[in-house]
């Protein structure tokens, strides 16, 4: 029997015995589950007051304004509630960014905007990595392995990506990795335009919170959706494009490399070009 239940029974016994003036009793507040603590800290009066901190780039990390969100997101109050709350906050250090991403991930986990994807997914695949990363990777959508494990780029394509990361002298933990979609399209088909539009709010949120200096778009789907481009990745690679404060480089998706080994040398050229901008000469 819990302490509070025993207390109620004792009080009922006192009342039935004719004692009418009982003291006011305040029952103990329920203890939040550990996983909910960060989210609850961001809500209501207990949310920490933030003085618009400045991030490592010298600019504030802030979410996109509502008019830059997907057009139909205003019709989704269940999801918009979280985003609107986040809009009012700034994220100046790794801890604050991790908190913001955690809250956004909660909203994604509940999202059912894309009916087919929500009905067929095992779980949402939000993103992984360093919340305060200088480099962000954006892929296409979760595949079967990602859907099973809940993490982007973990299958054969992910292993190839890990080799590319290592060859560049980087570590996966230094990078933030996400996709255009957070749910697996059945049969690994390409995302439908409406699905990409539905999920854009979350991608924008992740980019705004992490505030990377560089973004790599892996594959045509990632490049076209992030940049609003119509050109294929073969026409977009070999240059830096701009998205907000971030410099964007586009290259082939690791899945494409698994089917077209000859394209590996092109990706390596792209990575040398990319790393040179970071001050690293890969020869
Ligand atoms: S793909 Fe994105 S918008 Fe669509 S249901 Fe999944 S989380 Fe929601």
Notable features of this structure?
283 residues; alpha/beta; Uracil-DNA Glycosylase, subunit E; 6-stranded mixed β-sheet; 12 helices; 43% helix; 9% strand; globular; binds iron/sulfur cluster
What does this entry look like structurally?
Helices cover 43% and strands 9% of the residues. It is α/β, with parallel strands linked by helices and 283 residues long. It has one domain (54-277): Uracil-DNA Glycosylase, subunit E, CATH 3.40.470.10. Strands 1-3-2-4-6-5 form a six-stranded mixed β-sheet, with helices on both faces. Strand 5 (241-243) and strand 6 form a beta hairpin. Helix 3 packs antiparallel against helix 4. It starts with a helix and ends in a 6-residue tail after the last helix. The model is unreliable at 13-75 (pLDDT under 50). Bound molecules: iron/sulfur cluster. Iron/sulfur cluster is lined by residues 108, 111-114, 117-118, 124, 181-183, 195, 198-199, 202. Iron/sulfur cluster (SF4) is lined by residues 108, 111-114, 117-118, 124, 181-183, 195, 198-199, 202.
Set out the fold topology.
Elements: H1 3-16, H2 34-41, H3 77-87, H4 94-109, H5 115-120, E1 128-129, E2 135-139, H6 144-149, H7 156-167, E3 175-179, H8 193-210, E4 214-218, H9 220-227, H10 233-236, E5 241-243, E6 246-251, H11 254-259, H12 264-277
Parallel strand pairs: 2-3, 2-4, 4-6
Antiparallel strand pairs: 1-3, 5-6
Helix pairs in contact: 3-4, 4-8
The structure holds iron/sulfur cluster.
